[in-house]
Specification:
The chain is α/β, with parallel strands linked by helices and 408 residues long. 53% of the residues lie in helices and 10% in strands. It has helices at residues 14-22, 64-74, 90-101, 123-130, 162-172, 182-190, 203-221, 226-245, 254-266, 271-290, 292-305, 322-340, 345-363, 366-381, 384-398; strands at 2-8, 39-42, 48-52, 78-86, 106-112, 119-121, 133-136, 246-248.
Length: 408
């Protein structure tokens, strides 16, 4: 039995593909980290086990989810990777795609959300440049992914420049691994991923090579870190393949422009936090103070149309909200009814002051709960929470936490 990994960025429809291929019914959410652990199932009508990995933006190893994904890739029992990508955000998701391709395990790339894509892409040329087979989630049949054996594929490689390539060559000689691609391990080590340190025979010597490379890159390329330099090389590579393989249409660009503008500010290292705090403040104020009196006035206006009034000696509108008034009205009517049937005062107190008042004490918070979760649902539906978790990832990773814990 072969194990394939289903990997991709958060919010790219990865779990939808997993459910489609395996017939499972896993949770689908527009939120980073909807898959917080490995889920696995057999692909329908095959002996291939598919493992749904958590959605991450890279293999930095700074968070728990990144470590899970990295260890899964390094596991020799997992023979292949299926990379799910959001074609409408190809540039953003391509950095993680390169991470996966350099592991030399990627067998397929699935482009999702093609129905929202407003450009043309030369799949044959792109597949040739990436040395991997590319399929569309909404066009190709799933039996393309049911092969139990791995076909021989060409080696994927980005030229990072003479200085980096020389360092990679030296690092490869220090790696003790016959099953994992040594170049992949060397590159991840240069990026500062501690999860690959165990593969080096002489870690101290490898660290010296890394430090020497950093000094040389700072002199010749004016970069602050090796990972920053690698990012710039990958950025140029991605822009190059986009220029060769993508043709942007001149129509239907309004939504794309709006999405780019939203990302520009929502993910900004300063404005992003200000926007988040402002949105949370508005939600808090509307939930707990702004909208409740307005709703109460509407409810009591409706009750007035049916001649339903609460005696002033029982409760007043200025003191409590409409649910408390309704509960008090029900208590009043119930008391009158029970007294009419000569029910004992103890039983009346149990029903009115116990059961009805107890339920009312819980229901009094219902408007706040409904309003709060309505706002949370809207923010999740438009993809804002996915952006927020990316915004806070660096901060939370330093605290040893995942940014998924930011929002309930």
């Amino acid at each position: 039995m072969s194990n394939y990994l289903l990997a991709g960025n958060p919010n790219v429809g990865k779990t939808t593909i997993f459910n489609s291929l395996t017939g499972s019914d896993e949770k689908i959410s527009n939120f980073e980290g909807a898959t917080v652990q490995q889920k696995s199932a057999l692909i329908k009508n095959s002996q291939v086990r598919l493992v749904d990995l958590p959605g991450v933006n890279g293999l930095s190893g700074s968070g728990i989810l990144e470590k899970i994904v990295l260890e899964s890739i390094l596991n020799v029992e997992n023979v292949g990777i299926i990379n799910v990508m959001d074609i409408t955000n190809f540039k953003r998701t391509s950095y993680f795609m390169i991470d996966l391709l350099e592991s030399q395990k990627v067998e397929y790339i699935i482009f999702n959300m093609m129905d929202l894509f407003d450009a043309k892409v030369n799949i044959e040329k792109l597949s040739s440049l990436l040395n991997v087979k590319i399929v569309f989630a909404n066009k190709e049949k799933t039996n393309l992914l049911l092969e139990s054996t791995i076909e021989q594929k060409e080696y994927f490689k980005i030229n990072y420049g003479q200085l980096v390539e020389d360092a990679i060559t030296k690092l490869v000689e220090l790696i003790n691994s016959e099953d994992i691609d040594k170049r992949f391990i060397a590159i991840e080590f240069l990026k500062g991923v501690s999860g690959v340190n165990k593969y080096f025979v002489l870690l101290d010597q490898a660290q010296k090579i890394l430090n020497q490379l950093l000094v040389e890159l700072q002199k010749t390329n004016n970069v602050a870190s090796i990972s920053g330099y690698l990012f710039l090389v990958r950025k140029k590579f991605i822009e190059d393949i986009m220029r060769k393989c993508f043709t942007i249409n001149s129509v239907n660009n309004e939504l794309k422009w709006l999405n780019r503008t939203f990302d520009k500010y929502a993910l900004h290292h300063i404005y992003g936090f200000i926007i988040f705090i402002a949105i949370m403040y508005v939600i808090f104020m509307v939930t707990f103070s702004g909208i409740i009196p307005f709703i109460s006035q509407i409810i009591f206006s409706i009750l007035g149309l049916f001649n339903i009034h609460v005696s002033d000696n029982i409760i007043t509108y200025s003191q409590l909200n409409y649910i408390e008034q309704l509960v008090s009205y029900i208590q009043y009517i119930t008391t009158l009814g029970l007294e009419h049937f000569d029910i004992s005062p103890g039983m009346i107190s149990f029903i009115v002051d116990g059961a009805i008042a107890g339920v009312g004490a819980v229901l009094v918070f219902l408007p706040q709960i409904l309003i709060l979760f309505t706002f949370l649902t809207i923010l999740e539906a438009i993809g804002y929470f996915a952006r927020v978790t990316v915004l806070f990832e660096n901060l939370f990773s330093k605290l040893g936490m995942s940014s998924m814990s930011l929002i309930p």
